[in-house]
Amino acid sequence: MRIGVVTFPGSLDDVDAARAVRLAGGEPVALWHGDHDLKDVDAVVLPGGFSYGDYLRCGAISRFSPVMTDLVERARGGMPLLGICNGFQILCESHLLPGALIRNDHRKFGCLDQRLRIENTATVWTSAYDEGAQVTIVLKNGEGCFVADEPTLDRLEGEGRVVARYLGDNPNGSLRGIAGVTNERGNVVGLMPHPEHAVEDLCGPGTDGLGFFTSVLGALV
Amino acid sequence: MARVVVDVMPKPEILDPQGKAVHGALPRLGFEGVSDVRQGKRFELELVGEVTDDRLAEVHQMAQTLLSNPVIENFTVRVVDA
Hints:
The complex is a heterodimer.
Chain A: E1 2-7, H1 14-24, E2 27-32, E3 43-46, H2 66-76, E4 81-84, H3 86-93, E5 100-102, E6 110-118, E7 134-141, E8 145-147, H4 150-158, E9 162-166, E10 178-182, E11 188-191, H5 210-220
Parallel strand pairs in A: 1-2, 1-3, 3-4, 4-11
Antiparallel strand pairs in A: 5-8, 6-7, 6-9, 9-10, 10-11
Helix pairs in contact in A: 1-5
Chain B: E1 2-10, H1 17-28, E2 41-47, H2 53-67, E3 73-80
Antiparallel strand pairs in B: 1-2, 1-3
């Protein structure tokens, strides 16, 4: 199973994401933002970081990179696509996911082990989790405050499209504590916390993040 | 040559942490009487040739597609003397 990981100028977590794919049993494939070549991958991860220096708005420039024009089309066709942190911002800017991510309400960069509840296990990226599972995954962001208008929030909750929600204190002001959402089809998931930093006991808060990467392998079989 | 200015502002209902930070700093510097601050962005576009309705429509397109995110921001377009 070939899982592409895109590197943009300013990506930070592409190597960790590729490592997580490998630990889950997949074959990571490096993709480059400037190429149209998706190298026959079966799914793609957009990693965290500060692509294009977060110029203009987080993800606003990346959205128009060559690789994204192909990815948006493939994702609309059903290819699994996971956006983590900056990747989530890119997915919102691409309008593959609703809402937007703005600066944390407390204006500080947060870096912590964050408890989450997995609320939707029907997506291709979360099927390995039990519904309502409480997991701990690293959260590190400056602009992770998820916002959308009230009708959109109601629709997301009504359709069960909130993938993960923060437990405990809201770490960044995200409306209704939303940490991740999915599209209608369940193949595109955006997540502010970093599951790729929670895949080994040696470093990070455990292995709770591995499920995102094993889920997609199961879905692609 | 003509200059077109695009002002982009966070929508009123969207939290503006940067504006809040600026608002909080003003009284510390002794500036009183400011009840709120919203922070936006200003883009100055130098257009080649005449400003026609078609060109302005195109600037609106630029503003909607790239310069602003319509989910969280509003924008205005105006022509100014270069």
